[in-house]
Amino acid sequence: MPGSPVEAEICAYTVNGEKIGKPTKLSGSPAKLVEDLNYLPLGEILPRPCPAVFSVIVNYLIRLRYSDNKVGWVSTAFEVNECVVTTNGRHRSAAYFGEEIKHAYETGRWGGFSSPTSCASAPGHRGQEKVIVPPGADGLTLCRFHDGELIKHLDRATAKQLAAAASALPTRPNDFQCDGPTGGPEIRMIFHYPIGPPAEALLWSGRCGVENLYVEAGASPQLLELLAELP
């Protein structure tokens, strides 16, 4: 989103376009919200299978008002399958932050994204449409994918080392065709940044390597060795 809006308001709608309750005006400056939105990865992804899990979908429309009374809009949604597109009408992102925008609508406060020790799925960071992990990470959380259990939270030096190894991998568009021996990824790597949302990369065993929502790559021996050496 361009510029520095002075006010943010969120409206909620059903899938049929019926308004749910009253609009929520966010307290304080919307600067942090806009900063986080501007650091989401941009672009389309290849069609992916969405789980056939019934979900009540809530559409959210964020209204950003500027000092000259011009208005910008961002649409997104809460949907448990995370098959959502966020757009401002000009740019589109497959990043999902339904829980965060739902919380902001219900509380009137934008709380940002997951804490450094959380194993919750991360929306992604700008640049992940091209590389597995963008540079600049200052922390890393490792979690087991299947049960969401925290493995370890790692310091800035280790995060930068692993991010560099992952970002050096040649990538291709993610075709969502991987299927490991356990039916899914082994490790969720959540890289944290001083500005903007976390970046998530999933590490598979066997041939599938490593992926994010946009691109995939083979896991290099260097990356696997670094992970194996972690205390």
Structure explained in plain terms:
This protein is of the alpha+beta class. The protein has two domains: 7-107; 139-228, no CATH class. The chain has helices spanning 31-38, 98-107, 156-167, 221-228, and strands at 7-13, 24-25, 58-65, 71-78, 86-87, 92-93, 139-144, 150-154, 172-173, 187-192, 199-203, 210-211, 215-217. A seven-stranded antiparallel sheet has the order 8-7-10-11-12-13-9, with helices on one face. β3 (58-65) and β4 form a beta hairpin. α3 (156-167) runs antiparallel to α4 (221-228).
Highlighted features:
4 helices; seven-stranded antiparallel β-sheet; 231 residues; 16% helix
Give a quick rundown of the structure.
It contains 4 helices and 13 strands. With 231 residues, the protein is an alpha+beta fold.
